[in-house]
Amino acid sequence: MDKAKEALRQKQSQAPIIQLKGVTKRFGAVTAVDHIDLDIYPGELFCLLGGSGSGKSTLLRMLSGFETPSEGQIIIDGVDMAGVEPYERPVNMMFQSYALFPHMTVFDNVAYGLRRMKFSKAEVHAQVAELLHMVQLDDYAKRKPHQLSGGQRQRVALARALARRPKLLLLDEPLGALDKKLREETQFELVKIQEQSGVTFVVVTHDQEEAMTLADRIGVMDRGRIVQIGEPRDIYEYPGSRFVADFIGSVNLFDCSIGEEGEDFTILDSEDLKGSIRVGHGISGAPGSDVSYAIRPEKIALNRDSENADNEFSGIIEDVAYMGNWSLYRVRLDCGCILKVSQANLKRQDQTNLTWDDRVFASWSDTAGVVLPS
Amino acid sequence: MKWSARALVIAVPMLWLLLFFLLPFLVVGKISVSEAAIARPPYLPIYEIEDGALILRIAYANFTFLFEDPLYLAAYLNSLKIAAYSTLFSLIVAYPMAYYIARCEARKRNILLMLVILPFWTSFLLRVYAWIGILKTNGILNNMLLGVGIIDEPLVMMQTDFAVYVGVVYTYLPFMVLPLYTNLVKLDQSLLEASADLGANPIVTFLKVTLPLSIPGIVAGSMLVFIPVVGEFVIPALLGGPDQLMIGKVLWTEFFSNRDWPVASAVAIVMLMVVVMPIMWLRNHTERMEAAA
Questions:
Q1: ipTM
Q2: What is the DSSP string of B231-257?
Q3: 8 A C-beta contact, residue A242 and residue A374
Q4: Which residues from chain B sit within 8 angstroms of residue A99, using beta carbons?
């Protein structure tokens, strides 16, 4: 972890390769992208994460040059991209549909970008061979795209996009068309290739798991704005808003108001829970003001007996979903609200054996949750 | 039950083809190997039963005659030439049209397609006559050019190859536009974006991506123009000159002026062969293309 952070700090000590300054895109009355300021650094793998209609794809298309910003400036490697055609940009894109040329072989697809540059035939040949080797498709050069599997097409698309050695590679839902198993394998492969090539990757995805595994940094987008930028762990553990907490992973959210404040703790009064939550740090905000409290399901412990812990609420298990490596419990608390709790299934024979209608005590430590502006 | 329903569905078009294509074709085939005679109909039967013996009278002379008189060969070649040029000109005019329509928004597309088909609502003959009015020496076009002062004396356009090409391209244009449009409207926009993204300017993108992918449309449109133009009779008769030798016209003359049905039938059979061969080749070619795509 520290190594990763150090590597990221090092990347960020360089001049940014992409600078977005107040970039806005309007389609008629709709503002798809709303005043985005963003710096992305060389060698980074940056993920734009958001739901459909969040503006992430529009932002990507502005970087590639297929859309022009209504306002603002896009600077790539120190050059203002205003008026620069897509075919003149030092940027390549891997399309969501892959957009492989159906009438060309794998070789010709990968060579397409190289042939637009001043390379001799032999150079093109050597580079394509190298690229196909990188994506482990050495023997597929003569195939047509329709003769390939989904995973192979994805790798051809990646090789083709990397062929021109772009300063920046844009990937639109790169793993979206793959099945789950293949997606997991490909995620790591993609990261490896990114590290080897040293190219800056900007990935657009709606899949938070994909963003988590791939990214050095994630930019969470909502309604045309970037609502939070950070490393995956920070985004997950320290979400800055209810939206981010709810969007990334699963979370229990409670409306609270700030109650008693001590030197190193704060008590939140929650109407939802009909009780109070102890938070192990001070909070900026006047007593009585409204906040939200977010607690992740896996941070909560379930016990049959009360342990008199700080944040302990009793309830009845309403539903259990067994997922193999973990189980999700829906606990109906005495206050009437539902608490999602997940427990890792560490042992094959679980001694506690919690099941439907069992009475349980759910508890969490005073540092487990996050206080958010409501 | 299921089988008989299927058979019925196939039987209707089969019967249609049998009655209106295969039978007439066989009749024409029969006449083409008969001997001409001053009779009604003007040819001899190809078989007779004399004294209990069947006598076949197959006359190949009608076919060999076609190759002896250079007129026929010239007419075939000229027809093929005119059909080939017409197809080319139609393609040059139709491609940008189809491309533009395919790129319009859906609502505008339908209006434009409607406009392409609109001429079909008036009689074909009427439209060809309208071209006479436009192209003749004191016609609309000459008067306009004279009025503007571009020319000092009227251009001779009627009864030239030019008039024939104008008439043919005008008449057959929709047959080229529609298959091209159908092909181009399916073209995946992301392929064009991928091409641009990989450093190809719009011209290279057109040549390397759009054009190769539209070949099935080009082939289909070309067939629809080429085949009927080979046998075209009305347009060259009305707009072309008397020296305009086309096989359709030769056929007409043999049938109606010379009343030589056997030679006329032979001309028709050879014309069919001349047309079928390029179709076979093109079909073969498209199938290979489609298999590859």
A1: 0.82
A2: T--HHHHHHS-TT---HHHHHHIIIII
A3: yes
A4: 188, 190-191, 193-194
Give the tens place of pLDDT for each residue, A104-142: 999 999 999 999 998 999 999 999 999 999 888 999 999
Chain A residues within an 8 Å CB radius of B196: 65-66, 85-87
CATH number, domain A15-246, options 3.40.50.410, 3.10.25.10, 3.40.50.300, 3.40.50.720: 3.40.50.300
Dist CA B128 CA B239 (whole Å): 8
Nearest-angstrom CA–CA distance, B263 and B247: 12
Lookup result for tokens 């829970």:
A273
CA of A218 vs chain B CAs: smallest distance (Å) = 25
A117–chain B Cβ distance below 8 A for any pair = yes
CATH of domain A250-373: 2.40.50.100
CA distance B226 to B82: 9
Q: List the domains of chain B with CATH numbers.
A: 61-292 (1.10.3720.10)
pTM, 2 dp: 0.82
Average pLDDT of the segment spanning B148-161: 87
Give the pair of three-digit tokens for residue A4: 């990763």
Q: Which of chain A's residues have a Cβ under 8 Å away from the Cβ of B203? A: none
* Closest-approach residue (CA) in chain A for B216: A103
Structure tokens at B36: 């001409």
Search chain B and give the residue with CA nearest A146: B293
Chain A residues inside the 8 Å CB shell of B197 = 64, 86-87, 91-93, 161
Residue with tokens 């993108």: B205
Nearest to A66 among B191, B193, B200 (CB): B193
Domains of chain A, by residue range, sit at 15-246, 250-373
* A266 shares contact with chain B (CB less than 8 Å): no
DSSP character at residue B36: B
How would you list the strands of the sheet with A301-303, edge to edge?
A301-303, A359-364, A311-322, A326-333, A338-344
